[in-house]
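Budget justification, computational time. The allocation requested in the original proposal was used primarily to generate structure tokens for proteins on the priority list. As evidence of use, we reproduce two of the resulting records. The first is shown immediately below.
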Amino acid sequence: MDFKQLDDERTVNCELRDSLSELTNAQREALIISTLGHIQEEIVEFRQHWPRRSWRNDEVSPFDSDKKYDDALTEFADIILLLGNVAKYAKYDAEIVTDAIQKKLKYNQERSDHKANLQRPGD
């Protein structure tokens, strides 16, 4: 995702575009909580596209069906779009989000409590 799109008012729910800057913090908090609930629903819908029972070999994976793959991708897109809405409600712009992601990735690479960081190839 190009996080610069977070700065575009068109990414937010249509009914809020004109009034987003006028929302109170309490209204923003309510929208964040509500949208997080929608994200949870979309995550469940996305999860349902992936085989869940390892003992069954007749479940179709999105990797086995173009339609199932596209359906899963659509659910994934819903999650990303809703996360963009949360960012807007929380007053996070593209620069803030990009910086936070870069800091988190750097932190994860350096933290000693991650098994992945204890033994790297070539060490």
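The second record produced under the same allocation is shown here.
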Amino acid sequence: MWSGAVRNASFPWNDWQAAVRLYPGLNFAFIGPKRQITLPPMTIMARFVTPGTDHQELRPWWITTSALERIADASCHVGHSTAVIARDRLALSVDWNRTMQSFLVYRLTSSYGAWLGRAARQPLWVKNAASPLLSGGEYQLYVAGLQKKDLQKVGTALAFFSVPRSSSNH
């Protein structure tokens, strides 16, 4: 349930089927339970991006800071870059986000409604039927109707890092 007025209240948040009719891709984006949540002002969200693509901050797909931390932690444990881990766990097809060389971090200045749930498996290349499937499973947010005036950039876009595997046994 909503805990007060949200900026994007015109989106059919209380009716999943109406939301799917409006945005059919939602039906394939989540696996398992999803829930409506209210993102209050001061909520920090992140998204992985391909530099040079316009208006990325207004797109509806985001992750929480805790999801970003889990991705970075997994990167340290398995010795892959955060881009590799994020692409797999968020099931971000190359067709949707080509390089994922950086990420944006923004703070909301108004309340917004969102769907929160785990990313469903998606093909690495949407346009190739034989493409391997990405794992998915990480939590993602769908925040429709974002307005630029309600987003405050937290720092600048950060370059991805790669964490080498530790040779110690710790």
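A brief technical remark on that second record: DSSP finds three helices and ten strands in the chain.
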